[in-house]
């Protein structure tokens, strides 16, 4: 069996493997995965020999109506590198259980990819960032405050305690809990060598690039002024509502995540600005062109 599938709990494995088999029969395999965030989906125009499938037509995805309306999976090559692209993603604020939220990411991981570029639209907490800037994610602050992988892996870091009649965890659970922190924790969630390749590609293509810490909030409302102040003080550079659960899963399945935020607006302690439609369109056009240039220069670097 696909060795990544073997890492999933029985409860998840069947659904993920049904989708993976179906996609592999249609030639969906890749070396790099890409998850395209809000407004960034047009990168699929740069994919050669592209094949598209709607999420809703993939067996196993269609359990939730949200998934059916969220996007497509695309397979092809970009700069000669075989890629599988998620054009559209689910968000924690849609209220789905992790099993639904992360299913497309688990499937992506099982299609043979070595690394995944996870992109998002984000507000700029860092005062030097302006709309249209890109930021490679050096690390993340996960404000979801729960283990997104609970119940989804064959061997989770944290056991799900089996509370017996005395309402205490078993000795075996306590022993497993005691091991947490001593084994398996990711030192670098985002492998610095891969992040540097993205910075190199930015330098070569003349795309300005920051590097910083991404904060993942639950949303869907934008942050309150006091929250923005707090997120700045604890070291956040960009804030959005995705990415953290996906990167945690990818890393656990042995896929190296690389994160890229596209700053769409400044996050202000004086209140979020009202963006005009024109502002949004202009930022979108500028960023799309930059992103395509950047990613087409980046992908061959991971292929070496
Ligand atoms: N906050 C959270 N998510 C976002 C923002 C923001 O300011 N901009 C784009 N996604």
Q: What would you note in describing this structure?
A:
The chain is α/β, with parallel strands linked by helices and 304 residues long. The protein has a single domain (5-302), classed as 3-Layer(aba) Sandwich (Rossmann fold), CATH 3.40.50. The chain contains 9 helices and 9 strands. It has helices spanning 10-25, 65-68, 98-101, 103-109, 171-179, 192-205, 225-233, 244-252, 277-302; strands spanning 32-36, 48-54, 72-78, 81-87, 115-124, 134-142, 209-216, 238-240, 256-266. Strands 5-8-7-6-9 form a 5-stranded mixed β-barrel. The longest helix is centred in the last third of the chain and has 26 residues, at 277-302. The chain is globular and about 60 Å long. It starts with 9 loop residues before the first helix and ends with a helix. The mean pLDDT is 87. Bound molecules: hypoxanthine.
SSE blueprint:
Blueprint: H1 10-25, E1 32-36, E2 48-54, H2 65-68, E3 72-78, E4 81-87, H3 98-101, H4 103-109, E5 115-124, E6 134-142, H5 171-179, H6 192-205, E7 209-216, H7 225-233, E8 238-240, H8 244-252, E9 256-266, H9 277-302
Parallel strand pairs: 1-4, 1-5, 5-9, 6-7, 7-8
Antiparallel strand pairs: 2-3, 3-4, 5-8, 6-9
Helix pairs in contact: 1-4, 6-9
Which range best describes the helical content: under 10%, 10-25%, 25-40%, 40-55%, 55-70% or over 70%?
25-40%
| Main sheet record | 5 strands, mixed, barrel
Mean pLDDT across all amino acids: 87
Lateral arrangement of strands in the main beta sheet: 5-8-7-6-9
Morphology call: globular
Bound molecules: hypoxanthine
Q: What would you say the CATH architecture is?
A: 3-Layer(aba) Sandwich
Number of helices: 9
What is the CATH level 1 assignment?
Answer: Alpha Beta
> The CATH topology, please?
Rossmann fold
Strand content: 15-25%
Low-confidence stretches: none
**Care to count the β-strands?**
9
Computed over alpha carbons, the radius of gyration is: 19 Å
Quaternary organisation of the protein chains: single chain
Q: Output the helix-strand order.
A: HEEHEEHHEEHHEHEHEH
CATH superfamily: Nucleoside phosphorylase domain
Class from secondary-structure proportions: alpha/beta
Question: What distance separates the N and C termini?
Answer: 27 Å
The number of distinct structural domains comes to 1
């Amino acid at each position: 069996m696909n060795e990544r599938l073997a890492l999933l709990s029985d409860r998840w494995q069947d659904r993920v493997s049904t989708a993976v088999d179906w996609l592999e029969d249609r030639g969906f395999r890749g070396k790099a995965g890409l998850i395209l965030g809000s407004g960034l989906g047009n990168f699929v125009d740069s994919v050669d020999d592209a094949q598209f499938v709607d999420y809703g037509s993939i067996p196993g995805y269609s359990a939730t109506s949200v998934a059916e309306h969220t996007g497509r999976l695309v397979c092809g090559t970009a700069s000669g590198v075989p890629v599988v692209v998620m054009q559209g993603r689910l968000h924690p604020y849609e209220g789905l259980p992790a099993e639904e939220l992360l299913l497309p990411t688990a499937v992506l991981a099982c299609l043979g990819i070595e690394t995944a570029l996870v992109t998002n639209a984000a507000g700029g907490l860092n005062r030097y960032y302006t709309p249209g800037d890109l930021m490679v994610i050096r690390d993340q602050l996960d404000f979801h405050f729960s283990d997104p992988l609970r119940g989804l892996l064959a061997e989770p870091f944290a056991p799900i305690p089996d509370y017996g009649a005395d309402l205490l965890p078993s000795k075996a659970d306590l022993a497993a809990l005691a091991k947490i922190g001593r084994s398996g924790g990711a030192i670098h969630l985002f492998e610095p060598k891969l992040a540097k390749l993205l910075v190199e590609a930015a330098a070569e293509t003349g795309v300005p690039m920051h590097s910083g810490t991404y904060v993942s909030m639950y949303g869907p409302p934008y942050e309150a002024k006091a929250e923005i102040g707090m997120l700045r003080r604890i070291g956040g550079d960009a804030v959005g509502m995705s990415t953290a659960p996906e990167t945690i899963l990818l890393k656990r399945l042995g896929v190296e995540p690389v994160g890229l935020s596209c700053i769409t607006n400044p996050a202000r302690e004086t209140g979020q600005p009202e963006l005009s439609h024109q502002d949004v369109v202009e930022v979108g056009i500028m960023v799309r062109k930059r992103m395509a240039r950047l990613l087409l220069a980046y992908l061959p670097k991971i292929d070496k």
